[in-house]
Design goal:
520 residues; alpha/beta; two-stranded antiparallel ribbon; 13 strands; 49% helix
């Protein structure tokens, strides 16, 4: 986003934007809003002062399904920042088989490169479409797009120095100094018999009369006009969509796919980069395909867009954006916390090792990627976990100190479920209305039915495992399963979802604990 747009993102505006998609959790929204605003303020400072200001990383504590991931994702999308969500449980300590923690920065850099590349491709879309159109015309009308070869002017005389010499007169009075040169007029390729390896010197520049090219000028001009006219007719048909199904043969650049495998420790990304660099020597290259014009246009536009953007500029811009505004969301961080009463040994050794490996990344380190080194000193890290088994104090003290802001997210009840079903832009009820509308089935949720759905979700969460707002997804799927199955057969129709309809479909599941546990 531009600096002007970022200035408009005040903490109050950020919270208001998050309210459109996430219900409740005011404390968490205020914390991330302040963190984002501080990053905007930091970018306005002098470079000397800017380097000393580190981001205030955030630790979110709360049960599953209350909006921790959604808050971080919406925040990154709002600010236009490179964002990556990772699970702490998929990383292993150095020396174990698995992914090392530095790969999260490589993934973030890959996301940043893709973001910048997409933005730059949008700026060259018009040029890419024009070049793709010309390429399609060349495929449809071979030979019409070639420009006539320009007649090269006759080459001038060749002058080569042969060295200096000295002559002494017979009378002995002094000496004369001079330089020897070789002068020759080269013969053109046609005049020399088409062989450039045996140049000859000749004084005859042109053996053919000067009137001969003029005699054919009218014929060549008429042929060129006819080709141009045909090409423009095809261009008009192409723009009107009359040639979409015609087949053309295009050449596609291909690179071989190497099988994925794991290796001990780090360096996997470097190995992949090296393999991709020598891909052309192992079967990669070009492949011809016969495709319709509609599909060929997409491929040609993508290829032309790649040619028009500067890859070095993409890498530099992405690296700067990642270092200054990148956001890493580390989920399930409570799963690698070591409980104090458990002591050492077993898998806890690896868990504590992962914490030690994460520590330098969060503190600030330089990670090598195939796009260049990335400094993590000013990347914002947001960690989250339920901490229903372990506690934040079970993390190693150094890692706790790198997350100075701690926010506890509240559990969701009936009131929050009621708002989730109606208020957000992407509310579940709106999603199902739109989905079934594609089949010609119009459904309408009455206020009583929505209230009953919220109450059932809260009740099931209280008796079974509390999975937060995710319970609404299971409730809605069970409610509309039969209707979704029969929608193509009963369309078009209009159905009202009432409280009695909800009770009829869900009452048995809620009453039977075993059945409810299995399905919900």
């Amino acid at each position: 986003m531009s600096e002007k747009n970022l200035d408009r993102l005040t903490p109050r505006e950020i919270v208001a934007e998050l309210d459109k998609y996430i219900v409740g959790q005011k404390k968490a929204k205020r914390a991330v809003a302040v963190a984002l605003r501080n990053r905007i303020r930091r970018l306005k400072l002098d470079p000397e002062v800017r380097e000393d200001i580190a981001p205030k990383n955030i630790l979110m504590i709360g049960p599953t399904g209350v909006g921790k991931t959604e808050i971080a994702r919406r925040l990154a999308k709002l600010a236009g920042s490179p964002f990556i969500k990772v699970e702490a449980t998929k990383y292993t300590e150095v020396g174990y088989v698995g992914r090392d923690v530095e790969s999260m920065i490589r993934d973030l850099m890959a996301a940043g490169v893709q973001m910048v590349k997409q933005e730059m491709q949008e700026t060259v879309t018009a040029d890419a479409e024009k070049r793709a159109e010309d390429a399609l015309l060349d495929l449809l009308l071979p030979g019409t797009g070639k420009k006539p070869k320009e007649t090269k002017p006759p080459e001038g005389p060749v002058v080569r120095p042969m060295g200096a010499f000295s002559i002494s007169p017979s009378n002995g009075n002094g000496s004369l100094m001079g330089a020897a040169i070789q002068v020759g007029i080269p013969v053109s390729r046609q005049q020399a018999g088409g062989n450039d390896d045996t140049p000859e010197i000749s004084s005859n520049i042109a053996d053919s009369p000067a009137e001969e090219p003029a005699a054919d000028a009218g014929t060549q001009k008429g042929s060129g006009n006819q080709k141009d006219s045909t090409r423009e007719k095809f261009r008009t048909m192409l723009r009107e969509g009359k040639l979409e199904d015609r087949l053309v043969e295009i050449t596609i650049n291909q690179s071989p796919q190497f099988p994925a495998f794991e290796m001990m420790g780090g360096g996997m990304e470097d190995l992949e980069s090296s393999l991709s660099g020598i891909a052309g020597f192992f079967g990669g290259g070009k492949k011809k395909k016969l495709l319709p014009v509609s599909r060929a246009r997409e491929i040609l536009i993508a290829e032309e867009s790649e040619k028009l953007i500067d890859r070095d500029r993409v890498s530099d811009e992405a690296r700067q954006r990642v270092c200054e505004t990148g956001i890493v969301f580390i989920d399930e961080i409570d799963k690698i916390a070591v409980k104090g009463d458990r002591g050492g040994g077993g898998p806890d050794v690896s868990r504590e090792g992962v914490q030690r490996d994460i520590l330098p990344i969060v503190e600030g380190a330089v990670v090598n990627t195939k796009w260049g080194p990335v400094d993590t000193s000013h990347i914002l890290f947001v960690a989250a976990g339920a901490f229903n088994v372990s506690k934040p104090s079970d993390l190693i003290p150094e890692l706790q100190g790198r997350f100075p802001l701690r926010v506890e997210l509240e559990s969701l009840g009936k009131a929050e479920f009621l708002r989730i079903l109606t208020e957000p832009k992407n509310a579940l009820t709106k999603q199902y209305v739109d989905l079934l509308a594609t089949e010609g089935v119009e459904i309408e949720f009455t206020p009583d039915s929505i209230d009953r759905l919220a109450a059932l979700a809260a009740e099931v969460n209280s008796r079974l495992e509390n999975i937060g707002a995710r319970r609404l997804h299971t409730i809605m799927e069970a409610l509309l399963e039969e209707l979704s199955f029969e929608a193509p057969d009963i369309a078009p129709t209009k159905i009202s979802i009432t409280e009695s309809y909800v009770n009829e479909r869900l009452q048995d599941l809620v009453v039977d604990n075993d059945l409810g546990r299995y399905i919900l």
